[in-house]
Amino acid sequence: MLLVVATALTGCAHHGKKRDLGRFTAEGLYKDAHKSLNNGDYEQAVRNYEALTARFPFTDQARQARLDLIYVYYRKGENEAATDAAEQFLRENPTHPRIDYAWYMKGLIDYERTPWAFERWFGVDMAKRPPESLASSITAFTTVVKQFPKSEYAHDAQRRLIYLRNRLAQYQINVARYYFKRGAYDAAAQRAQRTIEQYDGAPAVQDALEIMIECYKRLGLKDLQHNVELVYQANYNDDSRRGERRHAWWRFW
Question: What pLDDT is recorded for position 23?
C-alpha cells in the first residue's frame, strides 16, 4: 500500500509540474529551464526548453533555448540529438550573434566521437584506423577560426584543428606504409605526396618525404628521388636523424 501511495503521489507531482509549464510565459520558461541547467537537472531543462520552443517559437527566448539545447543534449551524452540541434540552429539562424558557438559545439561533438580515452588507456594508435567524424569536426572548427576569429572559442578550435590535421596526416602516412610494406611503391609514393599537399606543416610531412625517397629509389626513378632529396635537405638538414627515421618506419617487425 505504501508503494502504491508513493507511486501515485510521484505521478501527481510529475503531472503537476507538467501542468505548471502551461502557466509560464516565454521568459519564465526560459529562466526555469536555465535554472535546471545550472543545477544539473538536464531532464527538466530539456522539458522546459522544448516546451518553450513549441509554445513560443518566434521569441528571442526560443532562439536562445535552441542554442542551449545543443549543450544540454551534449551533457546528457545524446550526441545525435546535440548534432541535430546544432545543425537546425545553423540552418534557421545564419546571422545569429552566437552562431560561432553552434559551429564550435558541432565540431566538439564530432571531435569527441573519436574514442581518445580508449587510445590512452589501451595504447591503441587511433591514427591507424580510418577517420570517420574527424573531417566533419575539422570543417566546423575551421569555420569558427576563419569566419569568427575574434570568437572566444576560436583559440580552442584552432588548437583542436591543428591536432586533428596532424592525426589525419598521420593516418595517410600509415596507409602509405601499408602500401610500401606490400611492395606497392607507386601507390605509397602517391599517398605520401598527397599528404604533403593536403597537410603542409604537419609533422608527418617529414615521414612523407622519406617514404617518397625510398619508393622512388626502389622504382629506379633517380631524378624524382634526387628532387625529393633536395626538398628534404632544404627543410630537414639533420642527415643523421633522417637515417634513423627512415629505417625506423619501415621496420614493421
Answer: 74
221 pLDDT above the threshold of 70: yes
Instruction: Please say whether the beta carbons of 123 and 175 come within 8 A.
Output: no
Do the Cβ atoms of 109 and 82 come closer than 8 Å? yes
Which class would CATH give 1-96? mainly alpha
Examine domains 1-96 and 100-253 and report if their fold is the same. Answer: yes
Asked: is 100-253 a CATH 3.20.20.140 domain? The reply is no
Q: HEC profile for the chain?
A: CHHHHHHHHHHHHHHHHHHHHCCCCHHHHHHHHHHHHHCCCHHHHHHHHHHHHHHCCCCHHHHHHHHHHHHHHHHHCCHHHHHHHHHHHHHHCCCCCCHHHHHHHHHHHHHCCCCHHHHHHHCCCHHHCCCCCHHHHHHHHHHHHHHCCCCCCHHHHHHHHHHHHHHHHHHHHHHHHHHHHCCCHHHHHHHHHHHHHHCCCCCHHHHHHHHHHHHHHHHCCHHHHHHHHHHHHHHCCCHHHHHHHHHHHHCCC
Distance from first CA to last CA of the chain, Å, rounded? Answer: 70
* Other beta carbons within 10 Å of 116: 12
- Whose cell is 513560443? That residue is 56
Give the confidence band of 68 by pLDDT, cuts at 50, 70, 90. very high
**Hey, where are the domains in the chain?**
1-96, 100-253
C-alpha distances out from residue 36 to 10, 42, 45, 103, 119, Å: 19, 7, 5, 24, 34
pLDDT (mean) for 157-167: 92
